[in-house]
């Protein structure tokens, strides 16, 4: 298999891989999703990830697919997408319950829901999920500087 980093460097390579593979290949759809995700085309990534998970054979990197799909859902503010994000992260947690990033995202979902319920601006100790998400992405940027343009596109 081709490393996602190699795909990022040579997008024509992933097109060639998809051409050789069947449309029923979950790994091909996952790879397509990764390429779109790394380019910042989240709508296309979402479609490819959803397609890869809908096939009978699951992609080999289901955990990463679910993690990225959940993060795409989380970007949206609507309650329906928060529910979809929770489902994706919960499934990713079932695949690997030791992944701190999944737990962080699940915590953010809880905070987003509580943000909707808690509108008391007088509370000095209330931190919004947006503040925590920004802090999370910037800490992630420090841990993985090679992904800085992907993880934290808005420099603070």
UniProtKB/TrEMBL annotation:
Keywords: Repeat, TPR repeat. InterPro entries: CFAP70, TPR-like_helical_dom_sf, TPR_rpt. Transmembrane segments: none annotated. Gene3D superfamilies: Tetratricopeptide repeat domain (1.25.40.10). One of its GO terms (cellular component) is extracellular exosome. GO terms for biological process: cilium assembly; cilium movement. TPR repeats lie at residues 26-59. Coiled coil: none annotated. It comes from the Eukaryota. This is Cilia and flagella associated protein 70. The lineage of its organism: Eukaryota, Metazoa, Chordata, Craniata, Vertebrata.
